[in-house]
Amino acid sequence: MFINYEHNNHVYNVVVERRDDHYFIMYDNTEYTVQAEEIKPGALKIKLGDRVIKSVITEGDKEKFVFVDGDVFSVKKVELTGSKKTNKKEEGDMNSPISGKIVSIKVKNGDNVKTGDVIMVIEAMKMEYLIRAPYDGKVKKVNFKENDQIEIGQTTVDLIKTGKEE
Amino acid sequence: MGVLKRLFKKVLVANRGEIAVRIIHGCQEMGIKTVAVYSEVDAGAPHVNLADETVNLGDPTPSESYLNISKIIEAARSVGAEAIHPGYGFLAENPDFPQACSDKGIKFIGPSAKVIAMMGDKIAAKKTMEKAGVPVIPGYHGLKQDNPTLIKEGKKIGFPLLVKAAAGGGGKGMRIVHSEEQIEQAIESAKRESKSAFGNDTVFLERYLDKPRHVEFQVLADEHGNVIHLFERECSIQRRHQKIIEETPSPVMTPQLREKMGKAAVKAAQTVGYTNAGTVEFMIDGKHNFYFMEMNTRLQVEHPITEMTTGIDLVKWQLRIADGQQLTLKQKDLSQRGHAIECRIYAEDPSNGFLPSVGNLEKVDVPNIPNVRNDSGIETGMKITPYYDPMLAKLAVSSERREDSIDKMIRALSNYVVLGVTTNIPFLKKVLEHKEFRNGNITTHFIDNYFKDWTIAKRGLPVDAVISLAVFDSMHSKREEYVRFKEADPHSPWKHVGRWRMGAGV
User: Fold this and answer.
1) Which residue on chain B is closest to A20 by alpha carbon?
2) Which residue intervals of B323-416 are DSSP H helices?
3) How far apart are CA B262 and CA B370, in angstroms?
4) Chain A contact for B468 (CB, 8 A cutoff)
5) Do B475 and A10 touch (CB under 8 A)?
6) Which residue in A136, A158, B43, B359 could disulfide with A140, CB within 3.0 to 4.6 Å?
7) How would DSSP label each residue in B82-119?
8) pLDDT digits over B271-327, tens only?
């Protein structure tokens, strides 16, 4: 699960995976493996190595509040990928959800792809992100080559929709 | 005296927030029915829920609610309350209020209107104390304002000397004079500045105190002439004249000094015929000279630390004294045990010039730690409005020694959850952690000296917060997964990677 948190105009990219009460968190090029439980609503007890993080989280109207060790931080979750639902044009600017290295590109200019086809694999923080086609389409332009560094929000490929409505 | 009177049956508490809650608890423990008054925005506030009866004062503007004498007197009459406890702030030190109470045959839980009025005039109060032999800061507050008179009086007082605008405030029209040669020039420039700032060039002269501390003594006086003191409270840690951390005993106190100051405090109360609970404020200089500053004719915000170290319930004594009962406590039997600190938790934003912070309290969760007392007027779900003082609660701890109290307080603050409204908790922790605070080297200049331009470092989200958020969101997410671990075991179900959908809500 990939999440962007915004705090004081700064965006934090985090990836988290859960396996029972274990969580694998990728943040700032470091992997954290923790064990966690919610001891009462909003109150977390997180074991990280020999350390215990106790925190309290609550959701306000617009933001979340995190209490850790007497300090309180308010954060918002943000969408950096932009909403495509409102895009009237057939072009999808397929932004990368994360900064990382492009390890593999599965398409080339002019290829036809189907919804769900893998277009690109981006590696960041020891994890791979698969960029898949959100709709059937034709690749107009691949903007990167393998081993390129891609930044969050940059467009991976320009994909023109080839839906039935055409 | 004669026959022992029965205690009040019903008391109205003319206040709100934590102090109203504290007073209601005291009454209820004694079997006295309580009446809360509240403005519209405080409907459902803890003090309202706790009281046996309530009266809605309507309009939240203070002058239309908690400061409105006729509304409050009418409320007391409508429910048949025999006495009114004013708390602190609002009407507590307005002599018109006890007068209005007695006019309607209601007992005011506090000193008489006459004493409140006398102590409210700070200059008259100092003169009264000086006559009674209580030390006051040497000074000149006379009407003759010609330079030769002022210079002559200044020399009498000695140096360093403070020239203060009579109408002053915020340091305007204030000059420190270190020697005789500077005095004339300082008086003239203070007068000029005062004239342009306040339209009045009257100045006072006072001895300037080096390393000043604010140390106050709690007194209790019954209506039969018995007066005792309950030791000191050190209140030097102030931000813009607002106390934020108080403790007792004071790190500067010695048994000899305590004895002398305690006697002076009792003398001060006796001199004016004081009754009920009160506080005599002193300044102590670097050489341990002490001077009477003023008398607070009410229960103080910081009274819990006295209660925690003496075991004496001040609110209950206020009620008994107002009821005409005799003080059964004798000075020689009183002692202090251990050490206590109080921190005032304000809804204010340290990273935004300590401006009051308003909003919804999404969560309030208070640590349950031995010897920690939380006097609070807030709870989860409450709205903090801009109408009243931003103090939310007072957290007080006690332990054997000062060092232990500091550690305990830091831990208690670190576990004091207030979400939704920004508080000064991080600032309080920083003050407690400061080396000079730990060493007890505190003066009223402490905050200005060490925290003048302090602000929360914008260091961003700490990693513990990021981990907590990620865990929380993962726990509460029902969404499919769309990343995989590179090194994951090939047979792991995590290999089955879901779809990355653009624009999907996370």
Assistant:
1) B475
2) 402-414
3) 30
4) yes
5) no
6) A158
7) SEEE--SSTTTT-THHHHHHHHTT-EESSS-HHHHHHH
8) 999 999 999 999 999 999 999 999 999 999 999 999 999 999 999 999 999 999 999
